[in-house]
């Protein structure tokens, strides 16, 4: 069993709902992320005036940072090193400094060729749950207790 | 439903690989990345914990490769739309990336298609990038979908 395991295949069941895991992102975190990404402050992700200049109400969280937040939530739930595929659609602007609700639902499980895999549907929403910022799927490869 | 595209763009980009890099995965990049997204699992933040778990050094979180795409892809010269946004992203981690790795990227145009919905027609431009480490091992496949609208 991997030393880092948090979730085992036997702990999962089709239909299981996980979360919401509630996250938020500060302005400073977005500035740090953008600096790594070669997109220094100010830009539409970090600055009100730059955001308004491109038609946004406020600075938003970059898509690849939102993906990193979903990945973090998966790690929080299932442990590190288990994501085999993460496929996200960005449906709405993800705001700074607001609660972000990340939820997973297991849509399939399989054991084949020695791999224990779990497919999850993913949503990230704000206060209005039926208007997701992000939808998507993840394929996790989990350790077995056997 | 996605449909074939009626708008002009540079079809000669299909089948052409665009190489970029190298990208050095430093402990500082991983530390800033993990801090900015609140990723606090010890294998991502502590080299000793990572080594105890069987990795060679502190590990990069699974979607970190996407940082290195950074808009170095060619313009497809699409004759449509003025506004664009990041419509989707897919990451398939294939092998661990650890501090000290040196990555290279090979990208190609995967697909261009239209979707028409309540807000009008949108063109999706999908690039696929393969990241390899210094040993030639594929560490991640990344797809990025950029959406262009009227």
Level of helix content of chain A? 10-25%
Largest interface: A-B, 36 and 35 residues
Describe the main β-sheet of chain B briefly: 5 strands, antiparallel
Helix proportion of chain B:
10-25%
- Helix/sheet category of chain A: alpha+beta
Q: Overall 3D geometry of chain B?
A: elongated
CATH topology of the domain at 11-25 and 65-149 in chain B: Thiol Ester Dehydrase, Chain A
The SSE order of chain B reads EHHHEEEE
CATH class annotation of the domain at 11-25 and 65-149 in chain B: Alpha Beta
Q: CATH fold name of the largest domain in chain A, please?
A: Thiol Ester Dehydrase, Chain A
For the record, the CATH architecture of the largest domain in chain A stands as: Roll
Q: Tell me the strand percentage band of chain B.
A: 35-45%
Question: Shape of chain A from CA axes?
Answer: elongated
What gap, in angstroms, lies between the N and C termini of chain B? 18 Å
Strand order of the largest sheet of chain B: 1-3-4-5-2
CATH class (first level) name of the largest domain in chain A: Alpha Beta
Annotation field: number of helices of chain B? 3
The CATH architecture of the domain at 11-25 and 65-149 in chain B can be given as Roll
Strand order of the largest sheet of chain A: 1-3-4-5-2
Number of helices of chain A: 3
Portion in strands of chain A: 25-35%
Word description of this protein:
The complex is a heterodimer of chains A (146) and B (150). By secondary structure, chain A is of the alpha+beta class. Chain A has 2 domains: 9-25 and 67-141, Thiol Ester Dehydrase, Chain A (Roll); 26-60, no CATH class. Chain A contains 3 helices and 5 strands, in the order E-H-H-H-E-E-E-E. Chain A has helices spanning 27-36, 48-53, 63-78, and strands spanning 17-23, 83-90, 100-112, 115-125, 134-141. The radius of gyration of chain A is 17 Å and the shape is elongated. In chain A, 36% of the residues are buried. The model of chain A has no long low-confidence stretch (mean pLDDT 93). Chain B has 150 residues and is mainly beta. Chain B has a domain at 11-25 and 65-149: Roll (Thiol Ester Dehydrase, Chain A), CATH 3.10.129. Helices cover 14% and strands 39% of the residues of chain B. In chain B, strands 1-3-4-5-2 form a 5-stranded antiparallel β-sheet, with no helix packed on it. The longest helix of chain B has 11 residues, at 27-37. Chain B starts with 17 loop residues before the first strand and ends with a strand. The mean pLDDT of chain B is 92. At the A-B interface, helix 1, helix 3 and strand 2 of A face helix 1 and strand 2 of B. Strand 2 (83-90) of chain A pairs antiparallel with strand 2 of chain B.
